[in-house]
Write a structure and sequence with these properties.
This protein is of the alpha+beta class and about 350 residues long. It is about 50% helix and about 15% strand. The protein has helices spanning about 5-10, 20, 25-40, 60-80, 85-95, 110-115, 120-130, 135-145, 145-150, 160-170, 170-175, 200-215, 275-295, 300-310, 330, 340-345; strands at about 50, 55-60, 105-110, 180-190, 190-195, 230, 235-240, 250-255, 255-260, 270-275, 315, 325-330.
Length: about 350
């Protein structure tokens, strides 16, 4: 594949009308990309980055396209495919509907992005020797940027960070999938879920999670406080040390969804899917804040848009030539079976 950062390669990654959003003409963009490529060739290029809260973003379109091309190079060469939340939730819902004996492990990784070892990543790429000199140069320039140089891990907000984190976890992902009793494993960024047909193996897996993560993804640790084991049939919470019952809450929360079971040990077993309580509380809090803001500015139109954004559906039209993107609470929670939560938010 062509790893070059020449203008033609970058323009191919530019979305329609994107340069207009950045207030540039195509001529200005072409000139800027040519200048950037010359700097990359001469090893004088520097990324222009800014920090917004805990996220790091590029300041202009040329920088954004260069970073996008770098990410594209890494993804294509290492055949990286990032997890899809909707697919994972659909699969989890199907698996939780089964009536055969099974156990579910849920956990996450502490400060995931912040604890990834940059030096280990760079060392891996150097050893593999399949990224071009320019790709390696730009990857180092990301980490050496003054706004990031004093920070640890990979920067939140950049598409390249998601790709790098997936590569960093690849060996650990394979290790979990290698367990004989594990028939389903998914990880969405730092949130992990495992389905096993053996309680004994589930307990053994939990006891080895942290040591294997530290070994296969140096610098990362499992969040022990968020590690849970469930009886799949009832979704009762079990002791992660011996498998004994801890509670009868019959509920598992994952990726913003809440899964609970009624009549778990009978023929009338029923799986109910809703939005997790934490997510509902978060939405309600934002709605309250929107009304407080309205009390100050008296802008009803703004209030209406905010409420629609928080509790309804909406379309985002990217350009005249492209179809609208649909989003909103209903589209984000398509697998919900208990619609009372939507009525609660309306």
């Amino acid at each position: 594949m062509n790893q070059s950062f020449q203008r033609l390669q970058l323009i191919r990654l530019c979305k329609k009308a994107e340069y207009i959003d950045y207030g540039m003409t195509m001529t200005e963009l072409n000139q800027s990309l040519d200048t950037s490529y010359e700097e990359i060739t001469n090893d004088t290029f520097e990324f222009s980055l800014k920090q917004v809260s805990e996220y790091y973003l590029t300041k202009d379109l040329p920088n954004k396209l260069i970073l996008r091309k770098l990410n594209d190079n890494v993804k294509r060469i290492y055949k990286d495919e990032q997890a899809n939340r909707r697919i994972i939730i659909s699969q989890v819902k199907t698996l939780l509907s089964e009536t055969c004996p099974f156990w579910v492990i849920k956990t996450d990784v502490k400060r995931f992005y912040e604890n990834i070892d940059r030096k280990r990543l760079i060392s891996k790429f150097n050893d593999d020797s399949i990224l071009s000199y320019q790709s390696m140069y730009l990857l180092r320039k990301v980490f050496e940027n003054p706004i990031l140089a004093g920070k640890s891990g990979v920067p939140r907000g950049m598409n390249i960070s998601a790709t790098l984190s997936e590569l960093y976890m690849r060996k650990f992902d394979r290790w979990i999938r290698s367990y004989d009793s594990v028939y389903y494993y998914a990880r969405f960024v730092d949130d992990i879920i495992v389905f096993s047909n053996s309680l004994k193996d589930s307990l053994n897996l939990i006891s080895n999670l942290n040591s294997q993560l530290s070994k296969l993804a140096e610098g990362l640790t499992i969040n022990q406080k968020k590690t849970e084991l469930f009886d799949g049939k009832t979704l009762e919470n079990l002791n992660i040390n011996n498998g004994s019952k801890l509670s009868k809450k019959n509920k598992l929360d994952y990726l913003g969804y809440s899964f609970r079971v009624e009549n778990g040990r009978s023929k009338n077993r029923k799986l109910i899917v809703s939005i997790a309580d934490k997510k509902v509380t978060k939405i309600k809090t934002r709605v309250v804040k929107a009304f407080f803001d309205f009390a100050k500015n008296k802008n009803f139109g703004l209030l209406e848009k905010r409420i629609q954004f928080l509790t309804g559906n909406y379309s985002i039209k990217k350009s005249e030539e492209e179809n609208s993107l649909r989003s909103g609470i209903y589209y984000n929670y398509l697998q919900v079976t208990d619609n009372s939560v939507f009525n609660e938010l309306n």
